[in-house]
Amino acid sequence: MTITNASDEAARWYARRHAAAPTAAEQAAFEAWRGDSAANAKAWAATEATHDALGGLAALPEMTALRSAARRPAPPPRFAPWRIAASVAALVAGAAGTYSLMSHRAPTTTASAVAAVAHYRTAIGEQRIVALADGTRMTLNTDSQIDVPAWQSERRIRLLRGEGYFEVAKDKNHPFVVETGAGDVVAVGTAFAVRKAGRGFSVALAEGKVRVTIPAVAEPTLLTPGERLAYDGVAVKRETSGAGEATTWLAGNLTFRDTALGDAIAEMNRYSPRKIVLDDPAAAHRKLTGVFRTGDVATFVAALTAYGMARIEREDAAEIRLKGA
């Protein structure tokens, strides 16, 4: 099933505007589309943020080898330039994994139904969009699990595993709370991602404001757009510009900047049933910078080989074992 939404339209507008300078009429049409709804404005901002993150990395020396490894044959010349750009933008706009769309019905508040809980899960490589009863849009990332109990004074959900991105419908009388087990993220109307990892979790804020409450930390933390907070069960780390790179998975990409190779491999493995195993503790500490498609372990390994970071020791359908080059 094909789903047309504001993100798809934003990708098309991005492709058209970057294929050639827009005419006055095209600029007016774009401004009219962007101003037509909050969803359109939000989708455009997210598309620009993703491409800015990718563009900033493209100029780095490490990306030369990555582009060679990932190069694909050029499209036939019969396609107009903007159509070629639109095809590329569509790839960026859609994740490599499987997408599905679900809706969440409004929970009842009768005594017999208060304990009812809706369960949502994704398999490895799958992403799922869930429309909640209040109008909130919830995107589950790969290998994730979220429970939505019946709501009363709060719109509370439980992130049990993995990661979710939440575009929260405004309702000042009913805060939206993401419960992670290690702390809560509270919002009224905003867009943010929450990931559960080990004993802790992380939050990346795209829009609005959220309050992060961690029982082990005395004071709540208020985040503003673009910020990312990570809690590992011991300490809190706050970044003022980490949200963009932390949410490129929404566009089907993983962005690494000076990331330990072992951590990058672990992240790639989240999206693919075919696992990468690095049999070299020393090589695991090497730093990697690059942008890769989620689930595309073959290109990822080819890039590591091309750049001299690792070599294939052996491989089969289930895994690829690497050694330091």
TrEMBL record:
Pfam family, one: DUF4880
Domain FecR protein: 119-211
Domain of life according to the entry: Bacteria
Residues in FecR N-terminal domain copies: 8-49
Molecular function, one GO term: sigma factor antagonist activity
Protein name: FecR domain-containing protein
Organism: Sphingomonas lycopersici
